[in-house]
Specification:
alpha/beta; 8-stranded parallel β-barrel; binds 3-methyl-2-oxobutanoic acid
Length: 289
């Protein structure tokens, strides 16, 4: 009995890898959430996520920038390393910031290498379709697992003219299908589909062999991803319609801080148990000084 439990436990906690995710196409839904530091990684992992994305959305939800294009590679490495230190069972994916995979294949490999070597990421994600194929192929050839990301790609906010749902017209939808197929053939292990109509996400999901992970892409993808702060009610301003809040940690946190303030103000914190004490001997010696 003890042995059976140990085996089951070992299976449950075994580390998730990129090939394992790749092999889950068409299987039970794959789950991913963003995390940006040690404690959010612990929470995501204990919540049973398959993948943790150290997303460049850290620019918005942690650093308060209006877009993701403000974040640089050093900052992404710092956040990725904090997540990796939690040693999660979930696969850790480092998001490549804007301009770190656009200039040359060599620069792309070096930059991804920093997320892997210095940040402890086990895979990288980058935005864009066929335009990014040479970089994606170069990474795959360097044995770096790559997650693609097409549709509403936030780093293209200026080129898109805002955060708009993509693929609503026939030509755009066809382009996205071709992008998905090309990335799949280049060897990505999974593909994020963001901000596209569900019917288009369903077609791409059927057309490619890598699992699709949706965000604002309807229920037909192979998995779903949301931003940590959105899931837990820690984000501010108007949320896109695909966001569902699964907890209200902001309210819980404000209530906790408010209780701390009131306890200090009314003298009930710290109490005797929460304080360090001198031995009677030392206390007496100090009184006798
Ligand atoms: O940075 C991020 O949070 C992302 C997800 C929305 C997929 O790219």
């Amino acid at each position: 009995m003890a042995n059976e439990e140990t085996t089951a436990d070992a299976e449950r906690v075994s580390k998730i890898t990129a090939p394992m995710i790749r092999a889950r196409k068409g299987g039970p839904p794959i789950t991913m959430v963003t995390a940006y530091d040690y404690s959010s990684a612990r929470i995501a992992d204990e919540g049973g996520m398959d993948m943790i994305l150290v997303g460049d959305s850290v620019a918005n939800v942690v650093h308060g920038h209006p877009t993701t294009i403000s974040i640089d590679l050093d900052t992404m490495v710092l956040h990725t390393a904090a997540v990796a230190r939690a040693k999660p069972r979930a696969l850790v994916i480092g998001d490549m910031p804007w301009l770190t995979y656009h200039l040359s294949e060599e620069a792309t490999i070096k930059n991804a290498g920093r997320l892997i070597r210095d940040g402890g990421a086990e895979a990288v994600k980058l935005e864009g379709g066929r335009k990014r194929l040479p970089m994606i192929k170069a990474l795959v050839d360097t044995e770096i697992p790559v997650m693609g990301h097409i549709g509403l790609t936030p780093q293209s906010v200026h080129a898109m003219g805002g955060y708009r749902v993509q693929g609503k017209m026939v030509e755009d939808a066809r382009d996205l299908i071709k992008d998905g197929q090309a990335l799949d053939q280049a060897g990505i292990f999974a593909l994020v589909l963001e901000g596209i109509p569900s019917a288009l996400a369903d077609i791409i999901t059927k057309e490619i062999s890598a699992p699709t992970i949706g965000i604002g892409a309807g229920p037909g993808t192979d998995g779903q991803v949301l931003v940590f702060h959105d899931v837990l009610g820690l984000s501010y301003g108007r949320s896109p319609k695909f966001v569902r809040r699964f907890a209200d940690l902001h309210a819980a946190a404000v209530a906790g801080i408010d209780s701390f303030r009131r306890a200090v103000e009314n003298g009930s914190f710290p109490n005797e148990e929460e304080s360090y004490h001198l031995s009677d001997e030392v206390a007496q010696a100090l009184r006798d000084l």
